[in-house]
Amino acid sequence: MFEYISGRLVQKTKEYAVIDVGGIGYRIYSTMSSLNELGESGEPAKLFIYTNIKNSSDVFSLYGFTTPEERSTFEMILGVSGVGAKTAASLLSNISTSKFALCVVTNDSKYLSSHTPGLGPKGAQRIILELKDKFKNVELDDIPQGEIFTEASDDSNEALSALIVLGYSRSEAEHALAGAEGAVEDKIKYALKKLM
């Protein structure tokens, strides 16, 4: 329905932002990471939109993200049975998209449930079970275990694993990460810009 909403930031809370577009204020729920990236009131703002419609209760709400990648991850989580938009947003408010991808790959349901308010162990296991199936065409067996989210793994290996989980081939991911610097999220953002 909406691809993105771009306008002037009017208000920002811990759960949503209000963006004025031509005199109409859109209340857009979001994650803490996306909300933190928005500027101050009065500054230009742009969010990529997911339209959440619940026919059973006639609820219509907008969820926005500063990157299409975060929106895609949100949509994947929302596709899991029993997971609503608030839980998906809460998960991504407390866990980065790259860390989430690694939790799915390594079956780390404990990390997901302990870092997401309102998500219990069974819900975390269901998310991992259902999303692992979506990555069945990704050749994860070829990745050395040390490269997939272990405490000892370095930022480059975490970024590489995250890109592979997102559907890129190992060679594409390695090529895109060439020259990337900074934290894991910075490297992933750098690589995704090159891949797009």
Question: In brief, what are we looking at here?
Answer:
The chain has nine helices and five strands. With 196 residues, it is α+β, with helices and mostly antiparallel strands. Helix 2 crosses helix 3, helix 5 (109-115) crosses helix 6 (121-134) and helix 7 (155-165) packs across helix 9 (184-195).
Note the main attributes of this structure.
196 residues, alpha+beta, OB fold (Dihydrolipoamide Acetyltransferase, E2P), DNA polymerase, domain 1, 2 domains, 9 helices, globular
Give a structural overview.
By secondary structure, this protein is an alpha+beta fold. The protein has 2 domains: 4-65, Nucleic acid-binding proteins (OB fold (Dihydrolipoamide Acetyltransferase, E2P), Beta Barrel), CATH 2.40.50; 68-196, 5' to 3' exonuclease, C-terminal subdomain (DNA polymerase, domain 1), CATH 1.10.150. It has helices at 32-37, 68-78, 85-94, 97-105, 109-115, 121-134, 155-165, 170-177, 184-195, and strands at 4-12, 16-21, 24-29, 44-54, 59-65. The protein has a 5-stranded mixed barrel with strand order 1-2-3-5-4. Helix 2 packs across helix 3 (85-94), helix 7 (155-165) packs across helix 8 and helix 8 (170-177) crosses helix 9 (184-195). The radius of gyration is 17 Å and the shape is globular. The chain starts with a strand and ends with a helix.
Oligomeric status of the shown chains?
A: single chain
Radius of gyration: 17 Å
The poorly predicted ranges are: 137-153
CATH class identity of the largest domain: Mainly Alpha
Number of helices: 9
What percentage of the residues does DSSP assign to strands (E)?
Answer: 15-25%
Helix content: 40-55%
Q: Name the shape in a single word.
A: globular
User: H/E order of the elements?
Assistant: EEEHEEHHHHHHHH
Please state how the strands of the largest beta sheet are arranged side by side: 1-2-3-5-4
* SSE-based structural type: alpha+beta
